[in-house]
Amino acid sequence: MKKFKKIIRAIFEILKNPWLLNNVLSDDSVWNKHVIKKYNLKNGLPLVDINLVCPDFSETLECFAFLDGSSLPTDIALLKSLSKRFDKCRYFEIGTWRGESVINVAENSEECYTLNLSKPELLSLGLSERYADMHGFFSKGKENINHLTGNSLTFDFNGLNKKFDLIFVDGDHHYTTVKSDTEKIFEHLVHESSIIVWHDYAYTPEKIRPEILAAILDGTPSEYRKYLYHVSNTLCAVFIRSEFPTTFMELPIIPDKIFKIKIENKIL
Fold first, then answer.
1. CATH level 3 topology of 22-239
2. DSSP states along 171-225
């Protein structure tokens, strides 16, 4: 009887506040079932050690804010290290925010492109002018960084007429958008050696974000799914056309390495 009352109450609340249905549809358990049923991946993507993806992994980040909405230091260091695989790296990212990722990658890149909603689009979503102005805070004015504006769902990627070496997906973090971004990247932006990195594939290095995992898998062509990995010690999934020794996460993860961190700040 209690369960029946809960169901009736839930239906009433959803009818009164239809937006609550989004919470149900985006619940991790729903996406977990989707991934397990369709791909039989109970523990996320195969886990590859960061030292295998980036041998002799050692990077210095010249710009990191330690504020909300940022990446882990290892996420940006991963991008910076991957950019060094390419001579005159061409980099593209969806989702700029303060520009911490692109400003670090730009050090090793010939040209960088970022795509983000325009200021009017951000304001139309009810976001503050202060928030809108924060986009590209660190990367504006950098000679080899081109800031593009637009919605990735409707943006003409083919019109760029360019292929990129390293692509970072860090825009809207809902299934529909991540799946669309992934499909369009594979269709328009990659060449035979391109690397794709998806941010926020995980909430933490030990906790997968099932909705993003589902979007990545559903958006990646079937013949390329074998090259999808979760990079250890990061929040990132990566597409890289190499075969690595992998494991699947067993929690809690037993540390097998430590990272040396030196922190200093510079007043702006």
1. Rossmann fold (3.40.50)
2. S--SHHHHHHHHHHHHHHTEEEEEEEEETTSEEETTEE-HHHHHHHHHHS-GGGG
Q: What is the pLDDT of residues 33-78, one digit of tens each?
A: 999 999 999 999 999 999 999 999 999 999 999 999 999 999 999 9
Bridge partners (DSSP) of residue 92 are 113, 167
- Dihedral of CA atoms 96, 98, 101, 106 in degrees, nearest 10, equals 90
Reply yes or no on whether the pLDDT at 99 is more than 60.
yes
Bond preceding residue 252 cis, omega within 30 of 0? yes
Any idea where the domains of the chain sit in the sequence? 22-239
Integer Cα distance of 90 and 113 in angstroms? 8
Are 77 and 55 a contacting pair, CB within 8 Å?
no
How much is the pTM? 0.91
Which residue is associated with the tokens 């390495």? 257
Q: Which residues have a Cβ under 8 Å from the Cβ of 221 and sit 6 or more positions away?
A: 186
For 170-203, what is each residue's pLDDT tens digit? 999 999 999 999 999 999 999 999 999 999 999 9
